[in-house]
Amino acid sequence: MYHLTVFVVAPVTPILIGKLSVEMTLKLGILVAVISAILFGFLNLIKNKILFILVSVVLRCIQGCGCAFVDTSLYTIVSDRFSHNVGKVSGILTTSVGVGFMVGPPLGGFFYTLGGFFLPFVVMGSLTLVMWVLMILVLPTSPATPKRRRLFSLYAYVEQDGLEQSIVGYTDSKDGSHWASLAREIPFVPNVQLADHISLKTLMDLKLISILLTTMVGSSILGFQEPNLSIFLENCGFKEGAIGGLFLLRDFFFAVGSIGIGYLVDAIGPYSILGVGLALGSAGYCVLGPIPPFDPTLLSIIIGLAITGFAGSIPWVAGLPCLLKATRHHGNKKSLNSQLSGLQNSCLYFGIFVGSIMGGTFLDFLSFRDTYLYYAIIPTLTAIAFTVTMLLRRSRGTINLEESLKA
User: Fewer CB within 10 Å of terminal CB in the chain, N or C?
Assistant: First the structure.
């Protein structure tokens, strides 16, 4: 439910950013996540099983809302204030996420050993709350978006025969009922813009759709492993400590590789890096399987996890630079950055959600080897489709440029 909540909430978070500010949304998201984390520690006081499950799901959804606010705000800040180094800064940001993946489980286990179920949530939540207070003191808050722009961002408007001016003038008014009556009189036209400069034409652009789909499939590479790899390792006789160490190894390569990927994104370009990420993910799965006639060994699992950890970080680093580059010819402005950040985060978390479901489903019907080898086909086909789309769009842009020069 956590990942599904982020998938739903992230695309609409830009509305909140427009109402408050990106810094205030960030602070609000951290506070929501911290409160829900602390409340998790008190769940053991609930004796009724059904109520326990219900409250757990609600708290997890609330935590997902906070995460959506935080992630969208952070990537908006990155795209706004580091527009010439989005890849590098995204890499650093993703590295911090990877370090959290590495440090979180050992710390949680340590505090659980000391104080049971209650202590890990309260201690980590309290530490984050202290960091939240420090951030309030250090991080400046930009002025909120003007009222007219906030109201305007909630509605669609149409550019046709001067109608845009009357609607914009109306949205600045206080009478909400007039919008409803006016909207019923507007005929359907194809050129509709949503949320301040992101148009339906942009959303339906093949390049943008391909980037979002590739980002989703790339993030599913890590999610796919969660429900099946630990089960397979347990069946192979690995102890809990060894299984945790293998996942820690994957997260290590996720964290360390992110910085280098960020530099490559800025140096080479995000499109090629994103495509390579899917290819590496497929290769890592073929090693994890592994490809017949080889049998799974500790070495193949270590190499496969290292490759997939590195590949899994690529969509987190290259996704936003790809979106920014793809929309720069569609009237891309700073007001668009939060919307692109929301779309990216939505696809990332939805990919993890779908990947985990597919990972469990595949293992119910297939062997461990076939589970990974069959799933490796999906990133491979997506990488091919993404590459073909980018090449076609590039050639089309070259043809249009030549025609413009001739004219």
Answer: C
pLDDT-derived band at 363, boundaries 50, 70, 90: confident
Q: Is the peptide bond before 293 cis (omega within 30 degrees of 0)?
A: yes
Q: How far is CA 106 from the centre of its chain?
A: 24
Enclosing H/E stretch for 357: helix 334-365
Q: Provide the 10 A C-beta neighbour count for residue 86.
A: 27
User: Within 13 Å and on the Cβ side, how many CA atoms surround 142?
Assistant: 15
CA distance 199 to 271: 22
DSSP SS3 for 139: coil
User: Would strands 157-158 and 192-194 be described as parallel, antiparallel, or unpaired?
Assistant: antiparallel
Task: Tell me the C-alpha to C-alpha distance, in Å, between residue 346 and each of 11, 216, 275, 305, 350.
Answer: 6, 9, 19, 25, 6
Q: Using alpha carbons, list the distances in angstroms from residue 187 to 172, 183, 242.
A: 22, 9, 64
Candidates 264, 310, 339; CA nearest to 22 is 339
Tell me the sheet residues that pair with 198. Answer: 194
Phi, psi at 198, each rounded to 5°: -105, 115
* Model-wide pTM > 0.70: yes
Q: Quote the CA–CA distance of 119 and 108 in Å, as a whole number.
A: 9
Structure tokens at 247: 């996942």
Rg (CA), the chain: 23
* pLDDT tens per residue across span 132-154: 888 888 776 655 444 433 333 33
CA 212, distance to chain mean position in Å, is 10
